[in-house]
Amino acid sequence: MDSQLAKPKSRFPSVVVGVIVLVSLVISLWAGYYYYETSNPYIKEVLALKGDANRGYQIFQINCAACHGKEADGVVGPSLHYVSKRKSYIDLIDQVTSGKTPPMPKFQPDGQTMADLLEYLHNL
Ligand code: HEC
Q: 22: CA distance to ligand 1 center in Å?
């Protein structure tokens, strides 16, 4: 009788412990990723600068409009309207500078230019 009662009692905490371990693992991985990205000096520099959307627009026309369209409504590359709702600034910087999704090339804009582009993308 005693052992039958004890069984469900002893299983419950191990499930809870499992969930807690999993949740803390996810949180620490996310925190580690966030720390890694924000400690990147280039990203830090870009995020600290104030962008100019007009200059961003001009840079976009020269470098990006051939693929994304003059008003960023998509040609070879996708429309970028509301892109800043889908992607964080860190993800946008990564998208522009990594070259991880060919045929989009890898760009290496200086910090101010990247900040201007972000400001333009943010307002689409
Ligand atoms: C040679 C064509 C080309 C050029 C030039 C180009 N892109 Fe792209 N871009 C693409 C393609 C194709 C994708 C889709 C990649 C994928 O997700 O597979 C893309 C994706 C993106 C995305 C992600 C969109 C989303 O919905 O997640 C952003 C942001 C972006 N480009 C910004 C830029 C900016 C800013 C420039 C100029 C500095 C630029 N691109 C220049 C082709 C291009």
A: 35
Q: What is the pLDDT of residues 84-120, one digit of tens each?
A: 999 999 999 999 999 999 999 999 999 999 999 999 9
Question: Which ligand 1 atom is at minimum distance from the Cα of 109?
Answer: 38
Query: 79, 69 in Cβ contact below 8 A?
Result: yes
Nearest CA to ligand 1 atom 34: 64
What are the structure tokens assigned to 20, written together?
């807690």
Burial class (CB in 10 A: 0-12, 13-18, 19+), 97: middle
Count of CA atoms in the C-beta half-sphere (13 A) of 110? 1
Task: Give the DSSP H or E segment for 33.
Answer: helix 2-38
- Given a contact cutoff of 8 angstroms between Cβ atoms, the answer to whether 20 and 67 are in contact is no
pTM: 0.78
